[in-house]
Structures are given as C-alpha cells and as structure tokens.
Amino acid sequence: MSIERNGNASLQRLTGCILTPGGWIRGLIEFASRIWSIDGVSVEHPEAHDQIILPGFIDLHVHGGGGSDVMEGAAAIEMIAATHARHGTTGFLATTVTAEKPELRAALTAVGTVMKQRKAGCASILGVHLEGPYINSAKLGAQPDACRKADIEEVKFLHSLAPIRVMTIAPELVGHLEFIKQLNELGIITQCGHSAGTYEEGVAALSAGIKGFTHLFNAMSPFQHRAPGMVGAALAHASYSEIIPDLLHVHPGAILAAVRAIPHLYCVTDSTAAAGMPDGEYKLGSHVVTKCMGGVRLADGTLAGSSLTMDQALRNLVRIGLDLSDASRRLSTFPADYLGITDRGRLAHSAFADLVVLTPALNLKKVFVEGEEIEVVNA
C-alpha cells in the first residue's frame, strides 16, 4: 500500500481482487475516508488472487465483545466497537436486552454519547437495536424476564437518547399490530422475534409493517407442516430476515433453506461479551453466561447469544456452500440496505472506505473503517 497526495487529500491505495456492485475486478482501489476510485478488469475467480478486498461487515445484532456488554456503559461500548472492528466489522447496531426502564435509559444514554464521535480503532455505531422489552415471556430465550406492554412514550424517550434503528417485538401480543405502525412512523424498523405467534399472526404482522425477523428459527414458534408458525411466515413471505451463522444456533441445512426462501437474508453475530475472549463467565444484561464448547449458554444450557465474529461468519457461509460474493452481500450489502444506508456495505465511488482485505483462505489481512486502518485479529 502506498500513499499519494491528491489535492488536499491523502489517498491510500490497495491492489487486489475487489468485489464491486457490478462484480469482481482485478485492480486498484483508492480512498481517504471515502472511496475515491476503483479501476481494473473483470475476473471470475477471486480465490485465484493473493489479496481479496470486500466491503466491511455490518452487524445489526451485537450485545457485546471483548469482555464487555452494551448494558454496561460508554467504556464497555467502546471496547465492543474496538473488538469487532478487529474482526472486520466496520459498522454495527448496539443491541440491548430486555431490562427495566432505568437500565434501558442508562444504556441508550451511553450509546448516544459514544455515537457522537467515532473513537480511533473502533467500528462505527449505526444506532440501536432494541431487543425487547415488548416480547413474549413464553419465548424469552436468554433474555431477562422484564417483558412489558407496548409503551410508545417509553420508546419516544429512548429514541431521543440514541437513534433506535431496529426493534424486536412479539407481534401477537395485544395492541402490537397498532404498535408496529406507531414505531414505523418514528422511522424505527420493526421485526418479529421472541415470539410464540402463529403463521397467521406473522402474516398479519408483515401486513402491519413488520420488515424482518430476529435470529430466524431461534426463540420463535417453529415450522411444522400443519402449523407453520413464525418461521413459516418468514420463509413464505419475508424479504429480509437476520440469521446467526455460527453453525450452532441453526443447522447448515436450515441456513441453506432460508437462503433459498428469503431473498435478502442477512447474517448477524448476536455476539455477547464472550466474543473475542477465552472460555469463562461473562455478562449478558443481568444474566451470567458461560462460554464453553464453542457456544455461550445460561446455566440451564439455553443458548445465550454467541461468541461469533463476522470474519468467522464469512468463512462459515463459504464452508456450507455459498459463493464468496453471495456471502459478502449477506454480511455487508443486505444489512446496509435493510437500514436504508447507501454509502456503506458496498465498494463504490463516494461510499465510506469501510473495507476488509483477506487472504485466499479468507483470513483477515487488513481492516479499514472510514479509511482508518485497524489492527486485525485472526481467530
């Protein structure tokens, strides 16, 4: 990599096999905080080249990392942003757990503070994913049991502290179809999750304005051929849904089925404080969780988020049969599109210079967030 002067801007240069919105090219990308130019010739087999350049990963469901949890305050959130940046995540949604009002207010106040200025070495925080508290107590998964009735005034107050981009709710609960419409009017994307709803209730939620589904297959009514449940509503009708590709939460065959059924299925880590850390005990909101045997669990064995990072998610998707360009879109472009963001999640002129550089084995070599090079970690 070399540095060139161009007017008042210092342009960085990288050569390699670059994934653009129009396909793979072998050539040169120039950038400062945003991409200045991409030039080269079309190629078909990126793995034949020694350096692969992809859009930086965008993770819309991050509870923690580096031993820290989103609910623990500003310093913890900065640690999370730094940890995931080292694994190729260039933008993410800080994700809360179901909690009482004071805890949620404190968490969103901290996110709002950290969002005011991206700290060097950190991924960009794109907003908040409020996972609960308006979920079904029958499908808590690893969520603390602080569920409550829909409260649009509470949401408006939290939204004033930090921008809520996505909210997970159980649409089958009384009053929630109208609640979905109110949330959408605030510009908040709603998605079904932690739900015991029927297929019919899922379809009604989509008609009311629900856009996606939270960690598809997990903590929702399952698919059965005479009772398709929330999973069936997603597979039959959704354009977007998130899924956790750690190969523990969802069987590879189920991931491949969802890829065929949901046009813009995108991947999240649902990572906890255990991401990037050794086996041991960590916090998930008010819960203590244990990282062991490749997963993160409550004391009763319930899966409690993950320790997945997005670079490993990419390798997992390719391992189960997705081609690299398709896997990349599900980690970068589709989540950006879901949020309505056009200048991240793709390598194109004037987009933010959020990119990852990988070896042919898909191990990280370099990460750039808005043109800043980040120290990488290879698990």
UniProtKB/TrEMBL annotation:
InterPro entries: Amidohydro-rel, GlcNAc_6-P_deAcase, Metal-dep_hydrolase_composite, Metal_Hydrolase. One of its GO terms (molecular function) is N-acetylglucosamine-6-phosphate deacetylase activity. Residues 52-373 form the Amidohydrolase-related domain. Its EC number is 3.5.1.25. It is an enzyme of class 3 (hydrolase). The keyword Repeat does not apply. The keyword Nuclease does not apply. Pfam families: Amidohydro_1. Keywords: Carbohydrate metabolism, Hydrolase, Metal-binding. It comes from the Bacteria. PANTHER family: N-ACETYLGLUCOSAMINE-6-PHOSPHATE DEACETYLASE (PTHR11113). Belongs to the metallo-dependent hydrolases superfamily. NagA family. This is N-acetylglucosamine-6-phosphate deacetylase. The gene is nagA.
